[in-house]
Specification:
heterodimer, A: alpha/beta, B: alpha+beta, Heat Shock Protein 90, five-stranded antiparallel sheet, 5 strands, 22% strand, globular
């Protein structure tokens, strides 16, 4: 399945909905979207990965790159993911310590708001 | 002899095809359903790495993948030809930062240095974490990554 991307603002936080496969072919599109959002002044991001069917290290690199970009503006990039197959790759690479990973978008937004 | 052999033009769009074929052959070879996600991801990582190496060194050479199901194991070998495209060992991709020494499983470069690219060696870290058994070997042509998983079939 190809990659579908959408985004909307909620409580001042930009939520990016990702659906499909994030790999070496599709990851550049996600990277472009994250860069575009940051360039447009959105520094608080939540990437909803509940409908992601596949994620590889290229996708991880894009997410890490996005995190670096928002942090350069004192921002944040949190993830929403409950799928074990996706979480496994974060655990293998040790990136569970780098990203805030939440069960729902609501939880991610609430957690981010409480840290402000 | 490999159960299935394939070679593909080193383009990112073909990596998905390689993943799907590998997963199908793994299932047919008797790899448990619970392990198929690991096969899919590990093969994808190996093919992505090979595609990037070929695009930098030898974009006209195809990436080779061999899939074998025999003797209670499902084995995948992804071989690149990128080494043949190098003149010496001084080019940046000859020894990228964080690249593991062949034969060892744990790359050390998980700290991202670039905004757009995954950290060097991260893909191999994923492979090492997923494959039941993995071996890296440098050949005159390039790097060969051999991965295998147990199967329930005996033949």
């Amino acid at each position: 399945m190809d990659l579908k991307l959408d985004h909307h603002t909620r409580d001042g936080i930009e939520v990016v909905d990702v659906e499909g496969e994030i790999d070496v072919y599709t990851a550049p599109r996600l990277r472009e979207l994250l860069i575009e959002l940051v360039n447009n002044g959105h520094y608080q991001l939540v990437v909803n990965m509940e409908k992601v069917e596949f994620l590889d290290s290229t996708g991880l690199g894009v997410l890490v790159g996005g995190l670096k970009r928002v942090r350069a503006h004192d921002g944040s990039l949190d993830l929403v993911c409950t799928q074990e197959r996706i979480l496994k790759i974060f655990r293998i690479t040790g990136l569970t310590k780098v990203f805030g990973i939440h069960d729902t978008v609501d939880e991610a937004i609430t957690a981010r708001k409480s840290e402000k | 002899m490999a159960t299935v052999e394939m070679s593909f033009t080193p383009l990112p769009v073909h990596v998905r095809t390689a993943r799907l074929v590998a997963t199908a052959v793994a299932r047919r070879s008797g790899v448990e359903e619970a392990l198929l996600d690991e096969v899919r991801l590990a093969v994808g990582e190996a093919c992505s790495r090979a595609v990037e190496a070929h695009q930098a060194q030898c974009p006209d050479e195809p990436v080779r993948v061999e899939l074998t199901g025999a003797n209670g194991r499902f084995e995948v070998v992804v071989t690149d030809a990128a080494e043949a495209g190098q003149d010496d060992g001084t080019s940046p991709s000859a020894q990228p930062a964080g690249w593991p020494v062949p034969g060892t499983a744990a790359p050390n470069g998980t700290s991202p240095a670039d905004h757009s690219l995954p950290p060097e060696g991260l893909g191999l870290a994923v492979i090492a974490g997923l494959a039941d058994d993995v071996q890296f070997a440098r050949t005159p042509a390039g790097l060969s990554i051999k991965m295998s998983w147990p199967t329930t079939a005996t033949g």
